[in-house]
Structures are given as structure tokens and as C-alpha cells.
Write a structure and sequence with these properties.
mainly beta; Immunoglobulin-like; five-stranded antiparallel beta sheet; four-stranded antiparallel beta sheet; 28 strands; 7% helix; elongated
């Protein structure tokens, strides 16, 4: 009987030890993220030092490892690559980083394993403020009721943003006054008749801002009395004339994660409004939006296409669009066709 009791006690003790060991094994786990890593310091300019914030973790990490990545200008995670020898908590930005976004991968470790999480990326500026290489330009027909479009030109030092201000000037392009128009497009008004139009572009990066002004348009004409003149059929456009994508409008602007209505106006190099031109648009990078079918321009020269965002579109991004206008039957890369890149900021 005594032996039986000893055996029973021993069995209970063994079961308790086994349960405790099993519970310990189930509780053991590598660190789990509670707050994302961050990038601190800066500003994000070549020559400045950035430092990784470890973020928040469970599991009492005993050590951290770091790897800094260089990504494309949009910060797309699919286009990031490790930076050689950038494995310390702090990283000093290099010339090769200018115009790119950088991020840091933080790996938290404890006795049971390691877990890695990346930070948000930041866009890196050169260590000088932007300087203009080729100035802003204006496309479109300067007539009442028409739309003018600004191209910001070419700049050094990788600007991170551009601001636009439309100006009304005298017939020589002097004595300019602020029209109140902002953005990349400007609708020509009745009060602009008899004047020229210029656009002032301010390029900015983390080191400062620089302003440049386009040349003036020709003197603004009366247009079609508010309704616009009759459009010219695309079948009448032949070389050496070419098609021109002269107007761009987006709704909403900035874009959101809802369908985006994109409108493009097509004229030709003689300034005529063109009907029947086929317009195609493709969002870049690939996969951020669904493809939209090609659409013809109406009698007012405008074609309307709808871009539907996918889940791959970041919450905040610059959506670049490749736009093509062509004459039906022409070779896609030849004839009177034209191509243009435009951009829409996405905000939430």
C-alpha cells in the first residue's frame, strides 16, 4: 500500500513537471512588433545622419540589427535594395541616395528567435537647393475658353515638389500680375484677352526653393465666343503636323483610393481642336491602377477615361501616367501620334 502511494505521488510530480515544461515551451516566442520602426534625425539631405528608432516589441528583445535600403523615388517596396555597408543604427546619406527614398529594416532578437520590420521611407534631397536647367514651358492654345498646361522644366538637386503660379502679362510678356491660378493647368478667361500668359514654377527640396518663369504665350485671342470653334477631324491631321495633348484634368485632384476621372484634350501643332483622336492612358508603376480602354476625343477635343486604383496603390504617392494620342490606323509609334507623361498626387 505504501509503495502504491509513493508511485502515485511520483506520477503526479512527473505530470506537473511535464505540464510546466510544456507551458514554458508554448510561452517561448521571438519578438513581436507593437510599434513600427522609425527614421529620426535629418533632414533627409545628402551628408546628414539618419538614425533608426527601434519601434516597439514584445518578447524583451536582447539585441537589434539594422539594414538600410535604397528605394525608387516613390518608395515602392518592390524596388528597394540593401545599401552596402549600411548595417549600423545610424546612416549618413550619400550622393547616390539623392532623388531616392531610403528606409531601415530593424531586426529584434531574443533567445527564441528574431523578427524583422521595415520603417517608412523618406525622400532624399541633394545638398543644394534646386537650380533650373531648362525653364518651364506652356502648351495649349491661348484663346478664351481653352486650357493651358505647364511643364515644370528640368532642374538639378532632385526637387521634391513643384508649385505653380499663372501670370497675366502685357503683349510683350512684361508687367505681369498674379491671376490667382495655381496648379499645372489654367483655363483662359475673358479678362485674359489681349494679354499674354506666363507660368511661374517654384521647385523645392529640403535645402530650399528656386523660382523660374516660362516665356510668354502669344496674345490671347477671343476663342469661339465661349462655346469654342468647331473641332477638326483627326483624319485631316497629316505630317508634318502632329497631335498634341494640350489639356489635362483630374477629378478628384489630389487623387484618392476611389475611381479617378482623367480628361485629356487633344489639339494639333497648328492649335486646332481635334475630334476622333484615340487616347490611351497607363498608370505607373504597373499594377497601381487597372487598365482603362482607349477612348476617342469628342467634338470639344476632350477624351474622358476612368482609372480604378488597385490595393497596390500606396496611401500617399505620386501616380505617373503615360498618355498617348493617335490617329486611327496609324502605327502606334509613328504617324501623327504623340505621347506625354503626367502626374497626379495621391493623398489617402
Amino acid at each position: 500500500m505504501r509503495a502504491a502511494r509513493v508511485f502515485a505521488v511520483a506520477g503526479v510530480a512527473a505530470a506537473a513537471v511535464a505540464f510546466a515544461a510544456g507551458a514554458g515551451a508554448r510561452a517561448a516566442a521571438p519578438p513581436a512588433l507593437t510599434a513600427n520602426p522609425t527614421i529620426e534625425g535629418g533632414p533627409p539631405v545628402v551628408g546628414e545622419r539618419l538614425t533608426a528608432g527601434n519601434g516597439g516589441w514584445t518578447g524583451n528583445p536582447t539585441s537589434f540589427r539594422y539594414q538600410w535600403d535604397r528605394c525608387d523615388a516613390e518608395g515602392d517596396r518592390r524596388n528597394c535594395a540593401p545599401i552596402r555597408d549600411a548595417t549600423k543604427r545610424s546612416y549618413t546619406l550619400r550622393n547616390a541616395d539623392a532623388g531616392h527614398q531610403v528606409r531601415v529594416n530593424v531586426t529584434a532578437c531574443n533567445r527564441d528567435g528574431c523578427t524583422t520590420k521595415d520603417s517608412k521611407s523618406v525622400l532624399v534631397s541633394a545638398n543644394t537647393r534646386p537650380q533650373v536647367v531648362s525653364g518651364p514651358t506652356i502648351s495649349g492654345r491661348p484663346e478664351v475658353g481653352e486650357t493651358l498646361t505647364a511643364e515644370h522644366g528640368t532642374w538639378t538637386a532632385f526637387p521634391t515638389s513643384f508649385a505653380y503660379q499663372w501670370l497675366q502679362c502685357d503683349t510683350a510678356g512684361n508687367n505681369c500680375a498674379n491671376t490667382g491660378g495655381r496648379g499645372t493647368t489654367y483655363g483662359v478667361r475673358t479678362v485674359d484677352r489681349g494679354h499674354t500668359i506666363r507660368v511661374q514654377v517654384t521647385a523645392r527640396n529640403a535645402r530650399g526653393a528656386t523660382t523660374a518663369i516660362s516665356g510668354p504665350t502669344t496674345v490671347v485671342g477671343a476663342g469661339g465666343g465661349g462655346g469654342g470653334s468647331a473641332a477638326t477631324s483627326v483624319s485631316s491631321v497629316n505630317l508634318p503636323d502632329r497631335l498634341v495633348i494640350s489639356g489635362v484634368r483630374f477629378t478628384p485632384n489630389p487623387g484618392r483610393h476611389t475611381p479617378i476621372q482623367a480628361r485629356f484634350k487633344v489639339t494639333d501643332t497648328r492649335g486646332r481642336t481635334i475630334s476622333g483622336a484615340l487616347v490611351y492612358v497607363l498608370g505607373l508603376p504597373y499594377g497601381w491602377t487597372q487598365n482603362a480602354p482607349e477612348q476617342p476625343t469628342a467634338n470639344d477635343g476632350w477624351a474622358t477615361l476612368t482609372l480604378v486604383p488597385t490595393r497596390a496603390l500606396p496611401r500617399t504617392a505620386a501616380l505617373v501616367m503615360f498618355v498617348r494620342a493617335r490617329k486611327p490606323g496609324d502605327n502606334l509609334l509613328a504617324g501623327v501620334s504623340t505621347r506625354r507623361l503626367v502626374q497626379l498626387l495621391i493623398r489617402g
